[in-house]
Amino acid sequence: MKTVFALVDCNNFYASCEKLFRPDLRDTPVIVLSNNDGCVVARSREAKALGIKMGVPVHHIRSEIRLHGIQLFSSNYTLYGDLSRRVMTTLEALAPRVDVYSIDEAFLDLTGVERAVSLESFGRQVKDTVVQDTGLPVCVGIAPTRTLAKLANYAAKKYRATEGVVDLTDIGRQRRLMALVPVEEVWGVGRKLSTKLQGMGITNALELADADPSTLRKQFSVVLERTIRELNGIGCIPWEDVPQPKKQIMCSRSFGSPLKALSDLEEAVAQFATRATEKLRKGEQYAGALMVFFRTNSFRTDLPQYSNSASVKLITSTQDSRAIVQQVLSLLRPMYRNGYDYAKAGVMLSDLVNATTIQDDLFASASPGEGDRAVRLMSVIDEINRKSRTKVRSARQAGPSAYAMRREHLSPAYTTNWTQLPSVT
DNA sequence: TCTGGGGTCCTAGGACCC
DNA sequence: TCTGGGGTCCTAGGACCC
Length: 425
Fold this sequence. Notes:
The chain is α+β, with helices and mostly antiparallel strands and 425 residues long. Among the domains are: 5-9 and 97-232, 5' to 3' exonuclease, C-terminal subdomain (DNA polymerase, domain 1); 249-360 and 368-397, 2-Layer Sandwich (Dna Ligase, domain 1). The chain contains 14 helices and 13 strands. The strands form three sheets. Strands 5-6-1-7-8 form a five-stranded mixed β-sheet. The longest helix has 21 residues, at 262-282. The radius of gyration is 24 Å and the shape is globular. Residues 365-369 have low confidence and may be disordered. The structure holds a DNA duplex (18 and 18 nucleotides).
């Protein structure tokens, strides 16, 4: 049976989430900002039409914001995460297999669907059901491979006549569309690669599809070879039946205002280490290595710059916040230099393993039972932190206000906090 | 004044071994 | 002038994704 994928992708996801609870903004241009209200990370249809670009620093577009009355929102990941779950739940009821690819998109397995109903009408059903259940608009691209489904979704978004659904299972249709799509729009072809490809005369998706895969593999990499095959309808990215465990966990932030003192940086990285370890325990994993980094603001070329990072392999894999915080701090201290404005820092946990593959430290001095006690302590802390507003934390972690993120345009937690439910008046 | 955060995969090149 | 060869493992960094 022919494999068929659908890619369902929410339209302007973060901006749509914000508009969902603000019907008064229905036709108003809306943009959502990154952490610290730094860059534009999402734009409503109206904001795109005004030429607001993805990723621009918000202070570069102050005049457009004033001129057009663009509404700003600080990113509200609690809200987006909750609405994302609702969308995915709806999709899981519609298709036998759903692969959640990111917060706002998922691949559906539509293999065999065609025997019951046309793919296009199934796509419309998906789109209508999601908007009915969640209020969020989506587009649906249908094709024999993931890369072509991405392309179909691109067309569904770009061409209004499609009404948000494109069935790209027909080869003639694939080729006609590919001839219209610039090569940089192909999934897996980024800025660097598209510049090089254009230099070779490959400017659209069709020219890439018709290029020789093994030649381009030698010149670039196996990734591009796979992309070419996928454009030709040969699937190279199969279904994963078991979700793959994470391989690394990152926690990093830019600071709302720069930090100078070692003690401030210590507080920050201790907090990142703690949060990263919480994620680790949530996935029931143990870290075998960790890395800490920090840096000044590289955009401030007028200021002295310094950045550094260090990593260490742990003798015993752990999920104990105290051990990880202690390691992170002992890496940080010798790298610290006085006299700089530090703008960002982070902690990365890697070499992640699950409990059954964990290897004990032959030379560990801990008495029997020590490990169990640590595990119990951590799970009690996690439980308290889940339930309570006042967090339990180690003495090293910063209090909530030490270097608070700028979030001047934050919307309420409409769906996850009883006190912030939307009200109808 | 002000420029995000969190991931994955692949490759090249060095270290080491016989 | 000529400077072994080939395998494995690991790491850092690049490129991509959303």
